[in-house]
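FAQ

Q: What does a record look like?
A: Structure on top, sequence underneath. For example:
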């Protein structure tokens, strides 16, 4: 190792395409292209600074927080260190991702070639994306790009990229609701235009926990909840919001007006749904056309138990959200580094739940896809029944799609 700088040890929350990288620390909240963003914690207000960064170093957070997932999708490494060490991160630093360490003031050695998993046995792949550039990144990977059948995006990521405050818009009456829907719809049109033939886009409808909502609203009231993770979000919140229903119809109308028949390439998915009763009530509340597909995320033990009933209720497709499923099965907050050792994506209880979902969906003839981190993929392939496909973050999937020694 070159240089004589101080070595700081950390924990890798998200990897990237390089094993060693160097840059100048950015300790502000403003975007600085190509720098190393240093922040106490990752939160939605740092979105612009995060996506401009070459890497992020933070003092708190877990493997699967929303902003960590955003970074993983973009291939932006995230390293967590003790909060006391953040003050030392100034000037030039070098991140060594394989050893999860930082050298302050050291020179970077030659980069090592990263190991890439195989595409074998993946089924039809769903890419988890954060913005339009992620579709372009996947579809520029040559012949293997055709293996990606769908792209999945959270509506809240669209809001971040567009600078939209959904709660403020929906509190602004019919004009604000319509404008919000049109803005989201217009953005989705650009996504559809970037798709290859045979590809589709899955929009996970708005899922703002109260603690996250407070970060992205200026005027709308937000309830203070003692445990937002288990509070009013996902399907529960959607069921109580007539404004969101109207905004969604504005989204769909914009897609039909702009895209015609290609509007059908955008499908909707219900976040954080508990069981078949909640799914059926929400479908009726949203007032969707009878033939419009509506998929659902399996993220809680109750949804695992209700898989067969949800298939019977007409869910068009199931997505197994491993990140939330782990925390609810193991009672280990995925954003709390103090319980990181208890948060295990390969825990037997979690795998048993995923197995039940896949087998129930297969018996019902309902397509099912399982999210996987690249590090877990081989384990899942060996220990789970075969789903219709896997979901993976953009940067990890891109490494699988690119031919060896492509130089990208």
């Amino acid at each position: 190792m070159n240089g004589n700088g101080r070595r700081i040890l950390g924990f890798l929350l998200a990897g990237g395409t390089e094993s060693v990288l160097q840059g100048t620390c950015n300790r502000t909240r403003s975007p600085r292209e190509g720098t190393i963003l240093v922040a106490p914690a990752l939160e939605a207000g740092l979105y612009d600074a995060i996506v401009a960064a070459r890497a992020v170093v933070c003092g708190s957070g877990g493997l699967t927080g929303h902003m960590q997932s955003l970074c993983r999708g973009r291939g932006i490494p995230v390293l967590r260190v003790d909060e006391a060490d953040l003050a030392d991160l100034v000037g030039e630093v070098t991140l060594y991702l394989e050893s999860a360490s930082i050298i302050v003031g050291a020179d970077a050695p030659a980069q090592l070639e990263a190991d890439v998993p195989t595409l074998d046995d993946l089924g039809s792949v769903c890419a988890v994306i954060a913005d339009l550039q992620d579709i372009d990144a996947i579809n520029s990977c040559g012949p293997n790009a055709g293996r990606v059948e769908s792209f999945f995006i959270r509506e809240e990521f669209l809001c971040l990229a567009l600078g939209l405050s959904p709660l403020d818009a929906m509190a602004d009456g019919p004009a604000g609701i319509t404008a919000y829907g049109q803005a989201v719809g217009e953005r989705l049109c650009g996504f559809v235009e970037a798709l290859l033939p045979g590809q589709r886009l899955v929009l996970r409808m708005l899922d703002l926990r109260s603690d996250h909502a407070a970060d992205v609203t200026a005027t709308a009231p937000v309830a203070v909840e003692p445990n937002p993770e288990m509070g009013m979000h996902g399907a529960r919140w959607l069921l109580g919001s007539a404004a969101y229903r109207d905004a969604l119809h504005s989204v769909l109308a914009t897609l039909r007006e702009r895209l015609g028949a290609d509007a059908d390439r955008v499908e909707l998915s219900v976040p954080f749904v508990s069981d078949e009763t909640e799914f059926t009530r929400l479908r009726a509340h949203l007032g969707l056309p009878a033939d419009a597909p509506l998929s659902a995320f399996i993220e809680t033990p109750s949804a695992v138990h209700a898989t067969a009933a949800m298939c019977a209720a007409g869910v068009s497709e199931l997505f197994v959200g491993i990140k939330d499923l782990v925390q609810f099965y193991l009672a280990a907050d995925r954003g709390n580094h103090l319980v990181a050792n208890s948060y295990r994506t390969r825990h037997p209880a979690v795998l048993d739940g995923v197995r039940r979902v896949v087998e129930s969906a297969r018996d019902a003839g309902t397509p099912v896809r399982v999210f996987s981190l690249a590090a877990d993929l081989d384990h899942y392939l060996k220990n789970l029944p075969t789903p219709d496909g896997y979901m993976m973050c953009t940067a990890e999937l891109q490494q699988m799609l690119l031919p060896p020694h492509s130089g990208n």
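Q: Is there anything notable about this one?
A: The mean pLDDT is 89.
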